[in-house]
Design brief:
There is one protein chain. By secondary structure, the chain is an alpha+beta fold. Helix 1 crosses helix 2 and helix 1 runs antiparallel to helix 3. The protein folds into two domains: 84 residues, Beta Barrel (OB fold (Dihydrolipoamide Acetyltransferase, E2P)), CATH 2.40.50.140; 227 residues, no CATH class. Strands 3-2-1-4-5 form a five-stranded antiparallel sheet, with no helix packed on it. Strand 1 and strand 2 form a beta hairpin.
Length: 384
């Protein structure tokens, strides 16, 4: 059954990829810089004095061997400035693996440090994550892992290329959200009635969040002015033509999906377990009103915990923005009006409202759709 679901999801995925990327400009200029992994063979310290400064700065003459690409096996040298920007610069040690940029400027080959190669630490985390997920979750853990892979494929190979191709951001995000919700729900639950409940309630909460984000953002005249990302987007001609505000909205919408699905699945699983226990004991029927109240009680308990969790998750991701804003000495009544701070408040509140709005919808759908299955099973058991 799982393999059939995966097969159908892959068919849908490969049908939609050309649709979202067909607007991509085939005449885009190639990147001016190439990036390669390299092994540091030698790193020598040397003093160098800038013409504009009488102070000697800490430089390194670094020799590297390229480990991949057309330059593989070639040795190059470049100077690394280890003290020009103090703590923002990093020293390179012999034997380390780094990422270097390669450019040809006026016929001269130039290299520079981009960052350190962190492949193995990332592999360690991924392997540990998969091992713990499967060891604790067993088959459910495997299905969760398939869900992770599905979501990652949708985001990396569908949503991002679709936005870069110049397609409508909101239409692209809508398709992405639909595929994420439907695909991950079917992988976790399977083609059951419960899956329809999760999909329906998640889409309802998503609509609430998206509506609030667009409404309040437009009302408050949110723009890209003052946002750090706006400077990064103007580096590339291709990125500078994109709607940065729309991309911010898209990130907020996608970011709230996981918690919506989590709350929906938890409520439906709790209600379904209640029905199964009652059916096994054969005590009495549970009508839709009782089932709705039970679902709401489960949702309220989850909401009480998730309110703090969501606030900490959103605020933690923007802690540097908060610290910079507070360090300027402004009052909070003024800070919340700045674009950098307002976008985080909008992300927290609109996403959380949408998530919590899905609770009564989930309880309502569960009380109406699951109760009929329970009534039929109860009557069949009593007739026997």
């Amino acid at each position: 059954m799982v393999m059939k679901i995966i097969k159908y999801l892959l068919i849908v995925y490969f049908l939609l990829v050309p649709v979202l990327t067909m607007a991509q400009d085939s005449g885009v200029q190639p990147a001016k810089a190439e990036y390669y992994r390299a092994q540091v063979i030698k790193a020598e310290d040397l003093d160098k004095k800038l013409d504009i400064n009488t102070e000697f700065l800490d430089y390194q003459l670094v020799t590297v061997k390229i480990l991949e690409g057309p330059k593989k096996g070639h040795d190059y040298q470049f100077e690394n400035t280890a003290s020009l920007y103090n703590k923002n610069d990093q020293r390179i040690n012999e034997g380390e693996k780094i990422i270097v940029s390669f450019q040809v400027v006026n016929g001269e080959e130039k290299l520079g440090l981009v960052d350190f190669d962190r492949t193995w630490p990332l592999i360690f985390l991924v392997v540990l994550f998969v091992a713990i997920l499967v060891a604790i979750g067993y088959w459910i853990g495997v299905k969760s892992l398939l869900g992770f892979i599905w979501i990652g494929a949708i985001l990396v190979w569908l949503m991002i290329p679709g936005i870069l191709a110049g397609n409508n951001i909101y239409w692209t995000v809508f398709i992405t959200a639909m595929l994420v919700i439907i695909g991950s729900t079917l992988l976790l639950i399977g083609p059951q009635k419960k899956a329809l409940l999760v999909i329906g309630s998640s889409l309802f909460g998503l609509a609430i969040s998206a509506g609030l984000i667009l409404l309040v953002g437009s009302w408050a005249r949110f723009s890209e002015i003052g946002l750090e990302e706006s400077h990064l987007f103007h580096i590339s001609d291709k990125l500078s033509g994109l709607d940065l505000v729309g991309i911010f909205y898209a990130g907020m919408i996608i970011g709230s999906l996981g918690s919506m699905m989590d709350i929906s699945i938890s409520i439906i699983a709790g209600v379904d377990e209640l029905l199964k226990m009652n059916q096994t004991k054969g005590t009495r029927k549970i009508d839709s009103h009782e089932l709705f109240r039970s679902g709401m009680n489960i949702g309220r308990d989850i909401m009480a915990v998730n309110a703090n969790t969501l606030l900490l998750a959103y605020a933690g991701s923007a802690i540097t923005v908060w610290m910079v804003a507070v360090s300027q000495g402004y009052e909070w009544s003024l800070l919340i009006n700045f674009n950098q701070v307002f976008v985080e408040v909008l992300r927290i509140l609109s996403g959380t409202i949408g998530i919590f709005a899905s609770i009564p919808m989930t309880a309502f759908l569960a009380s109406r759709l699951l109760v009929y299955k329970r009534k039929m099973a109860y009557e069949e058991m009593n007739n026997e």
